[in-house]
Amino acid sequence: MPETTRRTDRIPGTRYGNRPTMKDVAARAGVGLKTVSRVVNGEPGVTPETERRVREAIEALGFRRNDSARVLRKGRTASIGLVLEDLADPFYGPLSRAVEEVARTHGALLINGSSAEDADREQELVLALCARRVDGLVVIPAGDDHRYLAPEIRAGVATVFVDRPAGHIDVDVVVSDNFGGAHDGVSHLIAHGHRRIGFIGDMPRIHTAAERLRGYRTAMEDAGITVADSWMSLGATDPERVRRAAEEMLSGPDPVTAIFTGNNRVTVTVIRVLAGHARRVALVGFDDIELADLLRPGVTVVAQDAATLGRTAAERLFRQLDGTLLTPERIELPTRLITRGSGELPPAD
Amino acid sequence: MPETTRRTDRIPGTRYGNRPTMKDVAARAGVGLKTVSRVVNGEPGVTPETERRVREAIEALGFRRNDSARVLRKGRTASIGLVLEDLADPFYGPLSRAVEEVARTHGALLINGSSAEDADREQELVLALCARRVDGLVVIPAGDDHRYLAPEIRAGVATVFVDRPAGHIDVDVVVSDNFGGAHDGVSHLIAHGHRRIGFIGDMPRIHTAAERLRGYRTAMEDAGITVADSWMSLGATDPERVRRAAEEMLSGPDPVTAIFTGNNRVTVTVIRVLAGHARRVALVGFDDIELADLLRPGVTVVAQDAATLGRTAAERLFRQLDGTLLTPERIELPTRLITRGSGELPPAD
DNA sequence: CCCGAGCCTGACAACGTTGTCCAGGCTCTA
DNA sequence: TAGAGCCTGGACAACGTTGTCAGGCTCGGG
Q1: Reduced to 3 states, what is the DSSP secondary structure of residue A110?
Q2: Which of B68, B95, B127 to mutate against chain A (most A CBs within 10 Å)?
């Protein structure tokens, strides 16, 4: 008896790509179609002897239930969709995993798609998921107008937005306290004597980026500091742009003594810039990053909990599906300032 | 005209969770069922005027094609499954994203599932994906016996294993050169004068862990070094166990002067241990880690390219589906030693 | 004026499953 | 022993889509 199986082997009587169906199983076991269905689904009302014959036929033919047909009949797909920006980003991995775990406890599979921060691609993905009749959607939006989702939601697709709010539709939203977190982080720098503080963030059309900028501005204002335009830089978070932005604010006519960075990618790049910089510059970053504690100085961050964000959203999604949840809500999760050294450096002029 | 839509609104004539079908659209547009199908699928042979009426009805009813039914009829789902260990692990995020990108160019969606390094859960996930009739599967296996997949493969499910080989079935496999990479890393330490080198890796039942251990042993042997049992520690990669293992090898009767770590999680924990350690200990880790260049000393690693691993696997998968690929192969991707300082520290006795 | 070609259009079956409903055989009780 | 009720099994329709095929219409040529 061979230990391995080659792709080119075939089950006798089965054409390639043409799998056995319940009908085939029924014929082989000499029973009716519905009896096979009963065995496959563990429904009661089948004699042990009949069940044995059916199972034998299933085994022999290599039958596996076709869930597409099942879905068509039952109306529920037991799958949910997750649309995010980029699965390769260390922030979204844990979020996705958390959503998956919740889905798992509800017997659902997770389909994910990356929008690459492109509104059209987001819409394309979301609608493709709707066409597959996912039971629900968790969306980290790239665009800012989601009216295209309204018919789907009316048709019963449970929907929760995460990390960023939805535009022009009224749905559940789970976000971090971006404003408060940024305010805390910047205030922390101010408390350590800084007044010329730079902000480097993502494109302002991204809600989280805008909120964090607002937190920065408000914190500065609260401290009576007038912000110079050259201290703020918003745009794509590719290393080149961020590097340039950081170097400009460090070397301009009114150089900053501290930088607040708007997300993990920016933080990492700025750390690199500061590492090659003579003067000691304080740093607080939004989002925690791995090994932040081992750098010298350790990197002070405003941490948000990606896993909790995902879990909360997924739980609300399934509560919508249960029917326990009817009114859309906005849930804001707190952030946490983690001090490790870089944010406590005094201003060095 | 309202700017937002509430979940409780309903499309007139549509029951909740009961979406309009092509039949409804056909009735409203006053055309036949098939004509709607033609319009929806962009098939030729429809008068502009008829098409306009159909599109109007689609818009009015909020119709969206039900892909479940389509799949049932057509036989292809345009989706592939990816089973990996943990999406939250920074190694798998980029891999998953790479698979997704390839899928996207082929018009397919990606369903992923995390096995949590549990063979039963892996099988459960894989079979659930097969039941949904994914066109293909990319699997990072947790178990070591995959005969359960044989009927599925015979039935036409394209399959590629990544990162670790399959057990008892003959399928495409894409792996890194774990043996060679570990051999290189350990040899690098030996070249810098180390003889007492520790190895901390994952559970030996995991193929990559076993291969890396073999690379370590062979490199030591090649250098004529007899390995003490106390220098090797294999097991779960949770921080507590790794920390204990590292501390034991550093403080035992025959303390190591260098450590080779078997994967990214182990490396991170060992860096933490070494940071709190007086004596300078050299370190080379398998897998690259973010910010490794900014630590002092920089962390020397044997890097494997997760994205290339994923891309290569996905490309082979779609070539299987094209029919261009018939014979299963094993593809081994090279690793790359990146020196940053920690591996070049001399032995300090 | 008639016929055939070519173009639109729609009726119908099929995909594989599950829900409904009914038949037949059995057991149990009066 | 007859009737009621239960248990097992199966026939059939339906889910929403697409492929097949045939019918009807228009138009041009004979």
Answers
A1: strand
A2: B68
